[in-house]
Design goal:
By secondary structure, the chain is mainly β. It has one helix at about 40-45; strands at about 1-10, 10-15, 55, 70-75, 100-105, 110. The protein has a six-stranded mixed sheet. The radius of gyration is 16 Å and the shape is globular. The mean pLDDT is about 80.
Length: about 140
Amino acid sequence: NDVQRLNKAGRPFWLAGLGDQLAYWPARRYRTVRRVGVDDLEGTLNKVTDDAPVILLAHEPNVATRVPSRVALQLSGHTHGGQVRLLGWSPVSPAGQRLAYGHVRMNSDVIISGGLGCSIVPFRLGVPPEIVLVTLGKPASIVS
């Protein structure tokens, strides 16, 4: 839930990071924990003090539905690309089909990486492990 103003090739931008949206999820069974996450999207973006572009780091991609167009790019993971992906479809995705994997255009651009690991079941099919490289300051291009 903090921001840092940076420069790349003389051009300023903000790097904003959110706390985990599911930090207290396992503790819900005790019914003493009312919050699920420790993220504060509004408070974090209120720390941005000028109109330089904002890159948002948010582990879970679901927050994209609330991210304002003020954010140029959101980088997320969490879903492992659905972990099983058949013909572009993930049978089980914690973020829903639209936010399971890849590049999505909402109020901002959202990139959801398939990441390296697995969750719950140590098995991946149709989603090879990946590390995504995003190059700032150049015209958009897709490298495959």
